[in-house]
Amino acid sequence: MILTETLNIYEYKIKIFIKKVERNFMPVKFTEKEKEIIRETLINEGREFFSLYGLRKTSITQLTEAAGIAQGSFYNFFDSKEDLYFEILQIEHEKSENYVENVVKSNKSAKETIKEIIKGTNDLFESNPLIRRLYESRDYELMVRKLSPQKLENHQRDDTLMVLNTVIGMQKENELIDAPPEIIAGMLRAIAILSLHQDEIGKEIFPEVMNLFADVVSEGLVHENKGAD
Length: 229
Hints:
Layout: H1 2-25, H2 32-57, H3 60-67, H4 81-104, H5 110-127, H6 129-136, H7 139-146, H8 149-170, E1 175-177, H9 181-196, H10 198-201, H11 206-221, E2 222-224
Antiparallel strand pairs: 1-2
Helix pairs in contact: 2-3, 2-4, 2-6, 4-5, 4-7, 4-8, 5-9, 5-11, 8-9
C-alpha cells in the first residue's frame, strides 16, 4: 500500500514536471495576428535588452519571458538571438536610410547635404544606445559569427547601394563627388569612432570638432564640375 502511494506521488510529480517543460519549451501555434504582435514584442524587448546588457549577456529565456511565450516558440520567429539582433539593426539602418533620403531631397548643395548627414549621423549615434553599444562592445563580431554569409553579403551590398544612391542624389549639375561609395560609408563609420573618444578629444570642444570635421570632409569630397554649362 505504501509502495503504491509512493509510486502515485512520483507519477504525479513527473506529470507536473512534464507540463512545466511543455509550457516553457514546447512551441505552440499562433494566429497570424498573434504572430505579428509577438514578433514586434520580441524586437522591442530585444532592443531594450541588447542596449542594456549586450548580445552575450542577453538570453533567449529573458526575451521569451518578456514576450510571454515559451522558449521553443522563439524559433518560430528567429533562428537565434543573433538573428533577432541583426533584424533590429536592419530596422535602425532603415531609419538612417530614411533620414539620409529626406536630407538629399531637401535640394541643398552637395556640400551642405554632406555636412547635414555627418551631423545627423553623429546625433543618431549619441542618442541611440543600441548603436553606441555596437561600437563599444564585441556585439557585432559575436553576431556575424552566427549569421549566414549570404545574409551578410546582402546587407553589405544594400549598404553600398544606399550610399551610391545617396551620392547620385547629392550631385548637382555643377558639383561632383569624387569618392567611391565604400570610402563614404567608411567615413560615416568614422564618425562613430570619433564620438567614442570624446574624453580624449575633449567633451567641451567636441561639437566644434565635429563641425570642422563636417566642413573639411564636404570640401574634400565635393568638386566643381568644370564640364557643366
